[in-house]
Amino acid sequence: MSEENWHGLKVGIEIHQQLDTKEKLFCKCPTESFEEPKLEIKRYLRLKKSEMGEEDRAAKEEVERRKRFIYKFYDTTCLVEADEEPPTEMNREALKIAVQVAKMLKMTILDEIHVMRKIVIDGSNTTGFQRTALVAVDGEIEVKGEKIGIATLCLEEEACSKIAEGEDFTVYSLDRLGIPLIEIGTKADIRSPEIAKETAKKLGMVLRSTGKVKRGIGTIRQDVNISIKGGARVEIKGVQELEIIDKIVEYEVLRQLNLLKIKEELQKRRAEVIEKIFDVTDVFKDTKSKILKGKEVRAILLRNFAGIVGKEIQPGRRLGSEFADIARAFGLGGIFHTDELPAYGITAEEVKELRKKLGASEEDAIVFGAGDPERVERALRRIVERAKYCFLGVPEETRKANEDATTSYLRPLPGSARMYPETDVPPVLSSEFLDVEIPELIEVRAKRYEKLLPSDLAFEIADSKYYKLFEEFCSSLSPTIVARVLHVIPKELRREGFKVDLLGEKHLRMILELIRGGEIAKEGAENALKFLIEKPNAKKEEVINAIGSKSDLDIFIQKLVEEKKDLIAEKGENAFKPLMGIVMGEFRGKVDGKVIAEKLREAITKKIREMRPQNS
C-alpha cells in the first residue's frame, strides 16, 4: 500500500534492550535476582517544577491519581535502588556495549557522555526520575531497501517491574531497577506498518549480534510513535511481540481516522460538553445493579453526543473505552454511559430518571461512575477534558499496547520540561571505548551457515547464544546433528512443556561430546536432554546409564540371540524381522536404527554358523 493510502503516516520506533552485564548501571548489585523479598518500602511521589519553572503535564496527572507505591527490597538490591544512597559512576561494561552498538549503526558518538534526569512519577523509579545518558546521534540502517535514520542512542537504567496494582496503590519489585538498558530511537522515516515491523526486527538483530544483551520475555520492549495527516503524535508503550507491530500501526491509523470523523460529526451537531459534575446518587438509591448499589454516583453531561460515545474506533474498542481507560487510571473499575444502557443491572427507568435529573434529551449522552466521591470526581474532570478534545481531533498522548494490537490510554504525552541534568554522576569521555570491535551481524553469520543448514535453521542457529558451540562441534559432527541438539530438540521439548530453561551451555556441550565420542547415539540426544532437565547436576556416566549406550546394545543383542536360538535355527536369516522389533522396542530413540540392524544381523549370522556343526 502506498504512502497516500496510509494518510501521511509517520512512524518512529524506540527499542529498549536490557544489557547482559554483571552489575547494574549505577551500583554494584547483580543484574539477576533469585531471592525472596526481605522487606517493603512505602512511598508517595510528589511533583516538582523543572529548572525552567515548568511542570510536566504527564507527571502532573500521575500526581492527581494519588497513589502510594510499595517497593519489594531484596538481598540482591542496595540503598542506591532505594534512593537512600548516591549512585556510583556509570558502569564501564555497559558504556562499552553502548558504544559498540552505536558504531554498528554508523552513529556519531559524543565526545563526553553526560547523565540526565528524566522525570518519571508513575512510581516505577524510587527517585521520581530515570537516569539516562545520550551516547550517540545520527545513524542509519537499511530495511527492505529503505534508509531509516537513527536519531539517538541512550544508555539508561531499567525501571522497576510492576507486580500488583489496586485502587490507590501499586506494588513494584526493585530487582529489575537499575539494569543497564540501551534505548535506540529512529527518526520518523517509516511510512508503512510492514516497514515498522521490519525495522524493529532489524534493530533487535543488531543488538543480539553483540552477544551482550539479555534474552527472554520482558528483556526487550518496543515503543512506537505514530502520526497521520491531520492527526497527532501518539506514543504506544510496551510492545512485547514484534509480530504485532504492523497491526498496532494499522489500528492506530484507524483510531485516529475515526477520531477525526467524530470531530466532524460533533461540529455538525454543534455538540457541547457541560463542565458541571452532577451528584446522581439518589437516582440509584434502590438500584438492583450490584456495581452501583450503596455507592456514591457522579455524572457528566455531553450535549448532542448520543451514539458517539458508543462509536467503535478500534476493533472491540469505542470512544467510551477511551473514557473508561481514564477512569481506571484514577483507580476506578470503569465508567458507564447512556449509549450502552440499559445493561449491567441498570434499568430503562433509571436511565429515564437520570436524563430527567440532568435535563438531558435523547440526543445527549451521560457518562457516570461510582465509588469514592473524590476519586470519581477527579476521574470525571479528566474525562470532561478528553471529551472537549473530541472537537479538536486526536490528542497527543501515551498509550499502552494490548495483546490484541489495540491500545489503551496511559497518560498525556510528556513535554520537554521532564529533563534536567544529573549532578551526582560525573560525565565520561567516550575516547576510552572507541577501539571496541564491531561484531559479525547475525544475518551475515546466517549466510555462512546456509552452506551447512537449511536457510530457516541457519538463521535460528546464527541467532542462538550457542552459535559458538555450533561452530566448535560442526567440524567433528554433522552440522544437522549439532543444530538438532542446540536448537531443534530444545524447541520441541519446550512445546511439550519441559523446563528447557534449566539447560545451559554445559549440558549441551556434554551431549555433543558424548555423541562425538560414540558413548551415546545421536538418537539418544532427546532422552539425554530430558534426563538433564530432571537432573541438571548429573555427570556423563549417569546420562549414559540412564539412556543406554552401544555397549548396552551389544549385551542385549547377545542375550536375545541366545534366548531365541531355536527361532534362529528354524527361520535362519528370516528371524531378523521379529528380533529387530524386540530390540527396537528397547533401544528406539537411544541408538541409530541402522546400527541396531547391522549389529543384529551380525549376531544372527554368527549364531547360525555356531549351530551348523551340531545340525549336520
Counting DSSP E segments of at least 2 residues, the number of strands comes to 23
Unreliable residue runs: none
N/C terminus separation:
86 Å
Based on CA atoms alone, the radius of gyration comes out at 32 Å
- What is the number of helices? 18
Helical proportion, percent range: 25-40%
Which whole number gives the mean pLDDT?
91
Strand content bin: 15-25%
Q: Biggest sheet, in brief? A: 11 strands, mixed
Judging from the principal axes of the Cα atoms, what is the shape?
Answer: elongated
Question: Which key terms come to mind for this protein?
Answer:
four-stranded mixed beta sheet; 616 residues; alpha+beta; 4 domains; 37% helix
What does this structure look like?
The protein is built from 18 helices and 23 strands. The protein is elongated. The longest helix has 25 residues, at 245-269. The chain is α+β, with helices and mostly antiparallel strands. Helices cover 37% and strands 21% of the residues. Strands 1, 4, 6, 7, 8, 11, 12, 13, 20, 21 and 22 form an eleven-stranded mixed β-sheet that branches. A four-stranded mixed β-sheet has the order 2-3-10-9, with no helix packed on it. It folds into four domains: 4-239, no CATH class; 272-390, GAD-like domain (Gyrase A, domain 2); 466-547, no CATH class; 550-615.
